[in-house]
Amino acid sequence: MGYSANQLKNGLKVMLEGDPCAMQDVEFVKPGKGQAFTRVKMRNLLTGRVWERTFKSNESVEGADVMDRDMEYLYNDGELYHFMVPVTFEQYAADETAVGDAAKWLKENDTCMVTLWNDNPIAITTANFVELEVVETDPGLKGDTAQGGSKPAKLSTGASVRVPLFIEQGDILKIDTRTGDYVSRA
Amino acid sequence: MSDWKPTACIENLHKRAAVLALIRQYFAERQVIEVDAAVLSQCAVSDPFIDSLEVSFRSYPEAKAEICYLQTSPEYAMKRLLAAGSGSIYQMGKVFRNGEEGRFHNPEFTMLEWYRLGLDDNELMDDVERLVRLVLGVGPIRRCTYNSIFLEKLGIDLLKTSTAELAAVMRQHVEVDMGLEDRDAWLNLLMSHVVEPLLKDEPVFVTDYPSSQSALARIKENSTGELVAARFELFVGGMELANGYHELTDPKEQQRRLDADQLTRQSLALPQRPLEQRLVAALDYGLPDCAGVALGVDRLVMLALQVSHIKEVIPFAFRNA
Question: Residue A9 sits in which domain range?
Fold first, then answer.
């Protein structure tokens, strides 16, 4: 499926130089006396690179078979991460490149979004907030719930976050995965 | 169904009406008379990159259609009026441009075009500046030549820069797939994609356009002896707001430019449309020395109301019309 320049819009997935890319910001540019262009901010879905490209009005671009699906994270076999579509039980395996930073927040049985390109996982997006257990941190300071100050804590997924001093080993924490910040005790 | 509702809120439309009233008052005070020339014609603009909307005229419903064109500006008709002795005139009304749709574009929009007898491009800029400052309340507007704005914003000396180098600079900012044969295309790309957005904090008149981008402006010699177009554009808020010329009055040159546009259209496989020979005939009869400018009224209202999409200042944007 091809798209002409005037059909480009936010969220459209297309193939550029062999890689699937997502359009983030699309603007029609037409000087009074010059050619019309469609200026697009693009994101390469494999590398994450964001750049700008402008398309002549008569230019066309190939659509990419990219689809986002909600899946349940099952387990890591030491090399690959396994996911399952809850309704159909279809399973997908994603490598480290596809999982990327999301690995820090993946908890078994949590639902996350898997981006498929030609039916292969290329990216994993966890929920904005996840709840994870503290497996290692310095003992909590009782009563110190209001004062500032923070300390490192290691979570069940292996991720390390800064937490307030009163947090104890075994606490379940709510984490904002977009920033990697501690939000609260769950 | 709520899409019956206007795309602009009623408050904005009231403010728009006030801007339109102010414009009419401005011209009334200066004895520039309002005209309402045809926007439906048997001929179309020659400019290769402005596409006219075609409409079918029929003498009776079953008759074979005669293709007519909605005008993309009232320029040709107004120049015929000027040649016929109208004196200084303005027209504020709808014009149509095919395919133009976006944040700053609606295929049907309101253009203010005016011509002042005996003025050149510099004096017309004074006039534009008075009107724009009256409506927007901005300070004095700086004037900067086309070459110097490229030097100032991109560090490029156009007199010493090859087309390949222009392309390289463009690609540092925005990637594009385009050949090197058309230098003006690269200049236009840099202007619209890189320079224009950098002008968003300061209104600027860009003057002395390259002679290859003269459109219907006469050619003049600038202070350094270079031949340039007596053409200016006004940018406000990073938007192209107005485009003006010290008008070409030579009928032979006018004919040559119409024919050149038609050839460009042919080479780019763009539609060939009937050229307005009545314009050449009017110039042949005698177009008085004058300067003229077209200004996008919707964009002026956008600036006055500080809104970011044209649909917020017109009652029904194209997709809701």
Answer: 2-63
